[in-house]
Amino acid sequence: MVNSNIAQGALPYPFKCRPYNHQLECWYAQRDKNTYAIFAEQGTGKTKITIDTAAWLYDADRIDALVVIAPKGVYRNWGDAELPAHMPAHIRYRVGVWTAESKRADEDALARLNRRDGNMDLHVLLMNVEALGRDLQHNRAFECLQDFLTSHNALLAVDESTTIKNPIATRTKALMKARLLAPYRRILTGQPAVNGPLDLYSQCAFLDPEALGYSSYYSYRAHFAKLVPMRVGNRKFHKVTGYQNLEELNRILQRFAFIVKKEDCLDLPPKVYMPPRYVDLGKQQASAYRDMQSMATVAIEEVLQKPLEGDAGVSTAGLVITQMLRLQQILCGFMVSDDRQVIPFEEVNPRMEALMEALDESAGKAIIWATYRYNVRQIAARIAEQYGPEAVVTYYGETSMEDRRAALSRFQNPSDPCRFFVANKTGARGITLTQAGHVFYFANDYDLDTRCQNEDRAHRIGQSKSVTYTDFIARGTQDEKVVEALRRKLDISKVITASNWKEFVGLEPYVSR
To answer: Does the chain have fewer CB atoms within 10 Å around its N or its C terminus?
Structure first.
């Protein structure tokens, strides 16, 4: 543990800003190590720990570069906000951002990241992990990464490292090759094993193939997962039915990982979950929902009743969630045609009206999470109409990188008139929205990790007030089961089974109450 006198008084390093006790403890634990995992829950400041570690290694002449690989919605934030906020003042650094749609400024910045001109600055390369997901034989991002690592002694960090949990994914294979060129490596994530212990293998193998004590994913799986042999048609496979030896796994992780939860290390104001706001469906919505319920039930039963050798419910969750998404579109006020055109209902959208009422009753800044791009645009337009165009920003797939940076800057500026931040899962990771005191869920993504991530955009280091969370629920619909599961921190894909799926899709037609 960190010496309390150090934690409260003089610091052992000229940090740009004073670390919390848990950050200082982690910095001490891994600053000199070649490989390490920082499994720190969202909002506990693992980015700062990594920057402070890079600064220490740079001052010790062990590295001359930092490479950060992160998801699209996250990687630029390192250069825009995190490095300026946390890089010690005495360290000069240069930042280059790799992007497939390079602009002249990006290309010039990348060109300055070389040692031929004799500069001794710390070179920082930022790259989105999705760029490494293409064919490695003709992948410019991978070539850039290899060239950079070959010419530098780098600390290579993978932020949100669950993006490389799949051992056969191209991006995972790319980073397994790149790791050999980086003497120092880090993985960072808040929930390393959202779907179970098998998520850990590739992340840890990036640090060291022997980190977990198993050089093969299959031998690792055989030891920590409970497997049942299955057959579907001519295909044989093993189905994971549970996990085992988890205490042993935890002991192994302690050797090379710092694991911390928010409640164990931060004195943050509480999250406050407000009672859900219930809405009734419009007549067109109700009719469409009943019809879609019937079609979904027939479609699911048709598949589940097919004679299969083994467990007919192997793909039940995926099958049901596909139908649930169609139902959710109706609950959000629209349908999608066969040619993928959005068709809104020709009536007032009760969910939209309920949201606007809630915004009227709230004070200060708020985040509104939606699932679909159509709703993001629709919500932003309504807010702009009611509060003025300066009151709202959006952050979703169609928002350019420049506009995303501007949106974050405006929302986080207390004196800016921007009050509302409307986003979908694109904004769920890696950004800080601590000016928000209210979070509204117009609709939920069914992925538990996404819910956990977007809850913590506001509830993290820098938050000085309690954060309230409000879900909108259409009575008598799947919304009720979905919100219940997510608030209980249950993974919906694991909750749905062949015996209970009708509780989500619904046996009885919707009746307005």
So the answer is: C
> Are 283 and 465 in contact, with CB atoms under 8 Å apart?
no
Q: What is the value of pTM for the model shown?
A: 0.79
CATH architecture group of domain 271-505: 3-Layer(aba) Sandwich (3.40)
Q: Any idea of the CA torsion for 7, 158, 260, 82, to the nearest 10 degrees? A: 40
Please tell me if the domain spanning 20-264 has the same topology as the one spanning 271-505. Answer: yes
Q: Are 126 and 75 within 8 A, CB to CB?
A: yes
pLDDT of 2 higher than 70: no
> What does the alpha-carbon distance between residue 453 and residue 449 come to, in Å, rounded to a whole number?
6
Q: So what's the pLDDT on residue 314?
A: 46
pLDDT, tens digit, 9 for 90 and up, residues 283-316: 999 999 999 999 998 988 888 876 554 444 446 8
Give per-residue pLDDT as tens, 365-402: 999 999 999 999 999 999 999 999 999 999 999 998 88
d(CA 477, CA 469): 20
Please state, as a whole number, how many other Cβ atoms lie within 10 Å of the Cβ of residue 197. 22
- Topology of domain 20-264 in CATH is Rossmann fold (3.40.50)
Q: Are 184 and 62 in contact (CB under 8 A)?
A: yes
Q: Which residue's structure tokens are 């950079």?
A: 148
Domain ranges of the chain: 20-264, 271-505
